Prior knowledge:
Elements: E1 10-11, H1 14-18, H2 24-27, E2 33-42, H3 50-62, H4 66-82, H5 99-104, E3 112-113, E4 116-122, E5 125-131, E6 136-146, E7 149-159, H6 164-192
Antiparallel strand pairs: 1-2, 2-7, 3-4, 4-5, 5-6, 6-7
Amino acid sequence: xxxxxxxxxxxxxxxxxxxxxxxxxxxxxxxxxxxxxxxxxxxxxxxxxxxxxxxxxxxxxxxxxxxxxxxxxxxxxxxxxxxxxxxxxxxxxxxxxxxxxxxxxxxxxxxxxxxxxxxxxxxxxxxxxxxxxxxxxxxxxxxxxxxxxxxxxxxxxxxxxxxxxxxxxxxxxxxxxxxxxxxxxxxxxxxxxxxxxxxxxxx
Length: 203
């Protein structure tokens, strides 16, 4: 907890995330949940959505710290050398969506959002995936209203694509946990109260 009593950014027990009423639980029921991070976003007003979070996350990526930029740059270099980042031809998980989920999604399945290909975007829940030679990873971001603002959850699911996947994930774990994710989440919180709620992207 921070001095003002707000959570995060911290890793939280899986149980708190799994207790939320989210559609990702059914969609990825057979994919291992690797970790969940959370941060409290104070105030912000009514009507904030995942669209607001997406914009703040993208803005934070452009203005990330020197250490984050260095780590991401190193990962891109290694990806080019070892051909890690070639997108795999296997189909993604959008085929698991029902017709109703496709209609309700604010962005079409397959829309690119940074390095992720969106599966769906609902007002308070978004799931994207990335599949390459190292990993098939899924990112779920969920937003929940609280009395003093919102709580943002960021869950990562990982499906092995080879025997190298567990080795790769173990190698990048310290950088994800202690550098990249805290930096992104702190950036979102710093900008949260300075921008009005706008709903879905492009509205």
